[in-house]
Amino acid sequence: MPHILIVDDDENTCAALSEIVATEGFTSATAGDLREASLQIGWQMPDAVLADLKLPDGSGMGLFNEVGTAGVEVILMTGYASVESAVDALRMGATDYLVKPINVTRLRTVLKRIATTGDLKAEIYSLRGELRRYGRFGRLLGSSDAMQVVYDQLAKVAPTEATVFLVGESGTGKELAAQTLHELSERRRQPFLPVNCGAISPALIESEMFGHERGSFTGAERQHKGYFERADGGTLFLDEITEMPVELQVKLLRVLESGAFMRVGTNRELHADVRVVAATNRNPEEAVADGKLRADLYHRLNVFPIELPPLRARGNDVVQIANTLLEQMNGEHGTQRRFASALLDSLLLHAWPGNVRELRNFVQRAYIMADQDLISDALVPLQAAASSAAAATMVSVPVGMSLADADRQLIFATLEQCAGVKKHAAEILGISLKTLYNRLEEYASRGELPERLRANRSGATHGGITTPN
């Protein structure tokens, strides 16, 4: 039977919590301060500690020194909640953070997760063994040292409730990492919903996130449940978080703190138990400096940051991923195609500016073009097949240029390189087609769209920019 230590200087609180944990199948011990808690830990090492943040002889965070190396989960409680104290607690190693008066439903959810964490940790340990044999970890692939660091971080944070912030270039696999986190957590039987914040119209994003009531605005013909409501009990992946309108970031911060939100068109408060994993391909600190990301939201999301390495820093992972993708296509089509060794060598030399996404596109193109089992350099030259970003016109970014201006220059240069084909340009830039449309409409409205990009080219046009036929 799992054992929990309750540390609080209020005897009534200890008694009430003891009754609750008993109904969830825990034995318990209580302590009124850090000294007494240390004695209790000496008598019996708990599976979890539920401690007040402010104790008569110090902070509840002092208990990390007592149990930190034993794999004991620490849940902190406080009546003086703040973003800073929550972030500090979670960074120190707390697996959760509860605000007084304690929400009993929320506490029971936490206790149920703790009761089954042992099985989950055993599964993750087994997965680490699989990694050593096959170079896989969940949905991620690769055996390089850079990815081993990522796997270790995912293994540690997945069983907890900590908010994770994934940072990395476009195409490095941030959504796959988020799915792996979800599938290695106690939420894995509940929904995993990915949301591209840059692909939703700014006028609709609040409704998409939190839902709306019928008649709340023109066109709202029925009640709509937002992403938070639909992801209740599961994980919500917020990609391109820096593209979320700043005014909505305030409401997102409130949901992260309290779990409470309101649909558009009502004052009735709803609650959702959602774990948030956020991601960006920008430097988040620069996004804060540029006003794209609120500092308080950044600190709340950045509890457990994980950086996904670019493909060029992953050594032989390039060959492993290419061969695996080709094997998958062989399995789907009943073929036995393989890469020539010279082509595999050239893959290692390529810079892969589009990362794994670019490599996947190359393998698909190579498979389609091949008319024999051996795929060689002569059959599918790498530079011709790979992302045109590899041979793109150089863009000069002088010191002092704003990030917005640099973004605009890069978008224009990529569109020119792609002959105005927006779908191809969006793939190279690592953004959604909708995001690219929004950016171009914004530039056009300010008269910033160059004349050379307004010219009609082959294919249909939208706002003067060519789209695929």
UniProtKB/TrEMBL annotation:
Query: What are its GO biological-process terms?
Result: phosphorelay signal transduction system; regulation of DNA-templated transcription
Under the heading Pfam families, the entry gives: AAA_lid_14 (PF25601), HTH_8 (PF02954), Response_reg (PF00072), Sigma54_activat (PF00158)
Task: Identify residues that carry 4-aspartylphosphate.
Answer: D52
| Segments forming domain Sigma-54 factor interaction | 140-368
Q: What are the Response regulatory domain coordinates in residue numbering? A: 3-115
Cross-referenced InterPro entries: AAA+_ATPase, AAA_lid_NorR, CheY-like_superfamily, Homeodomain-like_sf, HTH_Fis, P-loop_NTPase, Sig_transdc_resp-reg_receiver, Sigma_54_int
Record's keyword terms, sorted: ATP-binding, DNA-binding, Nucleotide-binding, Phosphoprotein, Transcription, Transcription regulation
SUPFAM superfamilies for the chain: CheY-like, Homeodomain-like, P-loop containing nucleoside triphosphate hydrolases
In terms of PROSITE patterns, this protein maps to:
RESPONSE_REGULATORY, SIGMA54_INTERACT_2, SIGMA54_INTERACT_3, SIGMA54_INTERACT_4
One example GO MF annotation: ATP binding
Q: Which PANTHER family match?
A: PTS-DEPENDENT DIHYDROXYACETONE KINASE OPERON REGULATORY PROTEIN-RELATED, TRANSCRIPTIONAL REGULATORY PROTEIN
In Swiss-Prot or TrEMBL terms, this protein is called Response regulator
The organism encoding this protein is Cupriavidus basilensis OR16
